[in-house]
Amino acid sequence: MVEQGHIIKIEGIKYPALVVSRNLYNESGRVIVCPVVSEDTGATLAYPIGSDRYVLCDNLRQFDLNSRLYSIKDRVSLAEMINITDRVQSLFDYL
């Protein structure tokens, strides 16, 4: 099972994706992810991980991993995951 913080490669999807959904949700085989790109696109909620990758926190997608091939490529640190989920959460905050 994939876990929150895993960077996965999903067959047929151009970019790797960071799993932002909680593990309880991921147990269903579905995940909510944000793309991981190698160039700074200038996106408002892009978050740098390492020196050469960016998570696009405002580009959420859901995938059913029960029907797709995928592989786990990497994992972000807890500190990075906290900052990333804060940015994702900011999309849904009131006022």
Description:
The N and C termini lie far apart (36 Å). Strands 1, 2, 3, 4, 5, 6 and 7 form a seven-stranded antiparallel β-sheet that branches. The chain has a single domain, classed as Roll (SH3 type barrels), CATH 2.30.30. With 95 residues, it is an alpha+beta fold. The model has no long low-confidence stretch (mean pLDDT 96). The protein is 18% helix and 36% strand. It has helices spanning 23-26, 78-90, and strands at 6-10, 17-19, 30-37, 46-49, 53-56, 61-64, 70-75. The longest helix has 13 residues, at 78-90.
Note the main attributes of this structure:
95 residues, alpha+beta, SH3 type barrels, seven-stranded antiparallel sheet
Instruction: Give Rg in angstroms.
Output: 13 Å
Mean pLDDT: 96
- Please summarize the sheet with the most strands: 7 strands, antiparallel
Kindly give the count of domains: 1
Helix content: 10-25%
Assembly state here?
Answer: single chain
Number-wise, the strands total 7
Question: How would you summarize what this structure contains?
Answer:
The chain contains two helices and seven strands, in the order E-E-H-E-E-E-E-E-H. It is an alpha+beta fold. It has a single domain, classed as SH3 type barrels (Roll).
Present the secondary structure layout:
Layout: E1 6-10, E2 17-19, H1 23-26, E3 30-37, E4 46-49, E5 53-56, E6 61-64, E7 70-75, H2 78-90
Antiparallel strand pairs: 1-2, 1-7, 2-3, 3-5, 3-6, 4-5
